[in-house]
Amino acid sequence: MAPWRKTDKERHGVAIYNFQGNGASQLSLQIGDVVRIQETCGGESLAQVLEYSQIQLAGNQVKELISGAMEANDLPGVEMSEKVLKTALMQLSYYNHLASECDWYRGYLLKHKMLQGIFPKSFIHIKEVTVEKRRNIENIIPAEIPLAQEVTTTLWEWGSIWKQLYVASKKERFMQVQSMMYDLMEWRSQLLSGTLPKDELKELKQKVTSKIDYGNKILELDLIVRDDDGNILDPDNTSVISLFHAHEEATDKITERIKEEMSKDQPDYGMYSRISSSPTHSLYVFVRNFVCRIGEDAELFMSLYDPNKQTVISENYLVRWGSKGFPKEIEMLNNLKVVFTDLGNKDLNRDKIYLICQIVRVGKMDLKDTNTKKCTQGLRRPFGVAVMDITDIIKGKAESDEEKQHFIPFHPVTAENDFLHSLLGKVTASKGDSGGQAVSSRKSPKGERREGETEHILKLALHGEHSLPGLWVTMKMLVGDIIQIRKDYPHLVDRTTVVARKLGFPEIIMPGDVRNDIYITLLQGDFDKYNKTTQRNVEVIMCVCAEDGKTLPNAICVGAGDKPMNEYRSVVYYQVKQPRWMETVKVAVPIEDMQRIHLRFMFRHRSSLESKDKGEKNFAMSYVKLMKEDGTTLQDGSHDLVVLKGESKKMEDASAYLTLPSYRHHVENKGATLSRSSSSVGGLSVSSRDVFSISTLVCSTKLTQNVGLLGLLKWRMKPQLLQENLEKLKIVDGEEVVKFLQDTLDALFNIMMEHSQSNEYDILVFDALIYIIGLIADRKFQHFNTVLEAYIQQHFSATLAYKKLMTVLKTYLDTSSRGEQCEPILRTLKALEYVFKFIVRSRTLFSQLYEGKEQMEFEESMRRLFESINNLMKSQYKTTILLQVAALKYIPSVLHDVETVFDAKLLSQLLYEFYTCIPPVKLQKQKVQSMNEIVQSNLFKKQALSMELDYGLMSELAGRRPVSSGSENDLGKCKGVSESAECRDILLPVITKELKELLEQKDEMQHQVQEKKYCVELLNSILEVLSCQDAKKILDLLGYASGSQFEEHTYNGFTISLIWVEGSRHGSFVKPQRSGSAHPMRVVS
């Protein structure tokens, strides 16, 4: 017989069939029961375990009974015995089958560990596990992802409640729990599939944890606390205080979640919360099909549109559609993907956002004209628009799924003079389904049917594809900029996906994001017919020209996804005196060419007949330079350009028209300007009867529209104006400064480095730097903190800057500590964190370049700098009170960087002096808050706990200590600042002393209560840090033994219990004195 043996891999399983045990040795199972397997054996030994011999013996006894009954002629007895025998034989046959066919396990139920026994192996599905050993105890952990395990556990718990709800006839709650369980089961399958992309897996985890927490809350189950990744916090590795704070955060989140669930305004809560927390967003759109019988080629211009302002807010995505109903480039079939990037929170806060598609057909003047040979071809004519309200998708309030198709109905132009821009306004302003309501090809999540016109549109679109023209698209809201979404959504956004940028800068401009795009919008015109009998069919031909009039090739881009071209031809409106085009194109030229180029607009009448059209020539022109004489770019906004008339050839002669005015003056100067320009110059004259308007938008990280900022960026050109330009920087608009953040910082540090032998501009450069840092600290530009961090780490290269920055900073501190007026000092203290980041980065680069040279000099300068800070804290002048408060607030923020280049123990000693030089009763609240930041810093956390300081913490709090041998020496170690002590040993005495003094104050005034609250927070932080140590090792080190003495001290509702062992303090317990506290907090420090 095969013996029972301990299992190695088969340790954890789930019952997949019901098994009814027979006898005490067998374990009955129900489907879904989780078992822990201990041993296994083969079928040969089963008979013993199942008492197979006893069954055989019972069968033999039954046979003897039958024989006796037959001899006694007892027919009822015989029949009864035969039935018993038949049952015994069937049972014997069943166990014979099991013994021969099945292996068996021995183990116990996980939910009832006392229920042990054997069960057939074939009834169990084995799950992979990992075995961890802790102190000779095996801990079996399932190999599946923790969240899937949590879902399983949750389903078991909810399932029991679900049954109780059914029995109690609570139908509404029963159905609610059932719906949540179905969701969790479906999501668990998706989690275990391992096929989800990274972004979808992240979204799914968010939905699962949100659903579990919400369900536990409404079912009044225990609250689950999680880390930032959604994993359940391990209480063995998390301090009690951290768990408490995590409970508070989780409660707030779940309460907010319940509000959202009840309002039903944000069904996709996971996406909504992620969109709300990110500064940059993108919209992915996949054009599935365009259904419309045109008969000619067409151009589809898709963009994002604000209907309230009636403006396009993104670049156009251009799809060239063929006359046969396919993309003109057949390889683009099923590959028409675009992502609209650079959307910020301001865009998400717009009242309405639409996805619009403007359709322009390319062909004859009149689509109904059948004489194709005589007609002029290639004319761009208005055809219609398609509009969809995507506000809820953009804001994350509606379902955002790349598999869900939306149908966008098409709206044709109704007349030849119906402008596309006007049609957009009419469609978006109208109400109901005609206003752009999209129709999904899927049913809604709840299976509800759409009614009315929407349902009719869907039927037509699905069953009669060409019955109703329109667009089929899918879309998904993505979180992040283009670099981030390519990492997070590689299955959607790849190298073939077209990128359509926002018309304007994103809210965050990262260093290295070099951009030089100029968007030109053809607004409108007013052209007299002159000798024509009817109004002209005006076509605008735009090109980018050099100073000699030659056209720059490939300088104009009509839309994202299209190849650049030499010239752009506008849409032609039939016999319209005042055409309104509202067409936007992008001009992209090298920055070095900007100064010498200009835009030229030619106006030409287009005839319907090809024979007449060939004879038509340009009848007028306009031009505009993109750069002003002072070196700044053309101002954003609309511009009324002068219309010049003359011979067609003269219009192409740059030397003729560049001497004439290019745009009209403001309204008050228009009359005088036009009267003076009536004469002809070089064969060209200004037309007073024609008007042409454009608008420009410059998106350049290298070219500015501000003269003051330009003077600073180009400071080498006029060094005599450097001081003036540095002073002017403070009055430059903040948006313009952050737009050119990298170039501005480069200019400041270049000035500093190129004047390294003098200090002429040091203070001016330092003040300018403080102004920029303060600007970024403003709430309006807070997202630029990441930009500044990236600049410091990746682009900053001034190796000598640290010397000048430390010198100016020390000068300001010394001046203020003497009570003298120093206007920039408060702004400087607020910017202290980034000033030190620049200092540390500069020193690091210097050290790398010169292999650690001048380290002693640097440390001495740093020490003197901190001594100047300490002198400020000692100052008794009234003018320094506010500065001392600022120093207490901002000094902790510099530690993370300073400790990387400065001795940690020396830094700790300087901090010790920083706090001790403040009078005891002065700024106590601010000191405690500052100390709390110090305790949470790496400087405090990274050092090992020492015995001397372990004593020092609570001896300061209690104010006394049981007398024992050597206590005076230990006291000296705690209160002194020994050079050999660790950082924590240096800092804790002054912290605990401050705590003791505040906690012992008897004043119950409101401000004292607030200060004691800060004390408790500081004490919590200290104990939280100390709890990260291995308590067992600490107690072993301290020789923890019997004979302990306990003391209790109560402060502001908290009890601190001290443990004394042979005269030494060995541990502490902290518990809140609150009613109803079932689980007091315990921390061993």
Tally of structural domains: 6
What is the number of E strands?
33
Proportion in β-strands: 15-25%
Mean of pLDDT: 79
The low-confidence runs, each spanning 5 or more residues with pLDDT under 50, are 44-53, 431-438, 441-466, 672-679, 944-981, 1030-1085
- Number of contiguous helices: 37
Shape: flat
Mind describing the biggest β-sheet? 11 strands, mixed
Q: Helicity, in percent?
A: 40-55%
Q: Rg, please?
A: 40 Å
In whole angstroms, how far apart are the ends?
57 Å
Backbone structural class: alpha+beta
Domain C2 DOCK-type: 515-699
Subcellular location: Cytoplasm
GO cellular component, one term: plasma membrane
Region (Disordered): 430-454
Question: How would you characterize this protein structure?
Answer:
- It holds the Pfam family TPR_DOCK.
- Belongs to the DOCK family.
- It comes from Ailuropoda melanoleuca.
- The protein is of the alpha+beta class and 1085 residues long.
- The chain has six domains: 1-43 and 92-143, SH3 type barrels (Roll), CATH 2.30.30.40; 146-266, Up-down Bundle (Substrate Binding Domain Of Dnak, Chain:A, Domain 2), CATH 1.20.1270; 280-429 and 468-492, Sandwich (Immunoglobulin-like); 516-667 and 682-700, C2 domain (Immunoglobulin-like, Sandwich), CATH 2.60.40; 705-798, no CATH class; 799-942 and 983-997 and 1011-1027.
- It has 37 helices and 33 strands.
- Helix 4 runs antiparallel to helix 5 (171-193) and helix 24 (801-817) packs parallel to helix 27 (855-874).
- It is flat and about 135 Å long.
- Residues 44-53, 431-438, 441-466, 672-679, 944-981 and 1030-1085 have low confidence and may be disordered.
